[in-house]
Amino acid sequence: MDDQQFEKQLIAAVHQLEAEPDPPHTLERLVALAPEFFSTADFVGVSLTSGQRIETPAASNERLREVDELQYSMREGPCRDAIRTEETVKVDDLATDPRWPRWGARMVAELGIHSSLSFRLFTTDGGTWGALNVYSRQPYAFTQEDVVHGRTIATMSAVVLARSINEHRLATALETRTVIGQATGMLMERFGLDSEASFNVLRRLSSHRNQKLREVAEQLVTTRALPDSTALLAARIAEPEARDG
Predict the structure, then answer these.
(1) Count of domains observed in the chain
(2) Cα separation values, 185 from 194, 199, 221, Å
């Protein structure tokens, strides 16, 4: 693939990724598109960090996802190294590579995978979302051109993924604020409380029921039914206001 063809194909892929509605669909599209950029690619997976954990939410097939995640319990593997130490990890033959003997043997035995490339997905502050992993059944499958192209794809994918995640978080935050506002308004009308007191009722219900505040608010707005303890909580919270008045 020459540079002009690669650039044209990359632009088209970015447009397709940006058109996806949320992070899960963005990851699935990335897994589907990535093989087009490499000389040979039989499997693709995307691993993401979550606190101290690393998971593979998107992969070419379920068995790949399961074996890929073994890297994190075994504490060895190219994806894990790409995220934590080396940024880009190239493997010519997992059957003979001494770096990850247990995990490499599982990939060869269960999926017939020999070669791999792992690229860190950087965040804007120098951290990482995770890694893009490309696999082939052929030994010595990937060229230096594949490495260069893969780094570019990973960089662009990280930018699109970050935008998708941030937009999803913003939408979720707005939805949460809206439903909490609706629930608070219902309590204000039902018990004659001000907005602060009504919010405190929701917060107490959330604590008593061991549910997130949004979940309590959604149940209230959806069912229009109040838990038995709501009236008592409202009365207790309203008491200081009544005394102050």
Answers:
(1) 2
(2) 9, 9, 10
Question: In 3-state terms, what secondary structure has residue 128?
Answer: strand
Alpha carbons 71 and 101: distance in angstroms, whole number:
11
Greater model confidence, 190 or 14: 14
What's the token pair of residue 75? 């504490």
**CA 149 to chain centroid:** 23
pLDDT at 111 over 90: yes
Q: How many Å apart are CA 16 and CA 84, to the nearest integer? A: 29
For residues 95 and 78, what is the distance between their CA atoms, to the nearest angstrom? 14
Instruction: Report which of 156, 158, 147 is spatially closest to residue 88, judged by C-alpha positions.
Output: 147
Residues 6+ apart with CB under 8 A from 148: none
Question: 189 and 207 in contact (C-beta within 8 Å)?
Answer: no
Rounded Cα distance between 122 and 124, Å, is 7
pLDDT tens digit sequence for 135-179 = 999 999 999 999 999 999 999 999 888 888 776 665 666 677 888
Task: Using alpha carbons, list the distances in angstroms from residue 200 to 92, 177, 193.
Answer: 60, 15, 10
Is 133 found in the same domain as 228? no
The parent domain of residue 185 ranges over: 170-237
Looking at the fold, whether 52 and 106 belong to one and the same domain comes out as yes
Report the alpha-carbon distance of residue 245 to residue 240 in Å, rounded: 9
State yes or no: pLDDT of 107 exceeds 90. Answer: yes
The verdict on residue 242 lying in a domain is no
CATH classification at residue 194 = 1.10.10.10
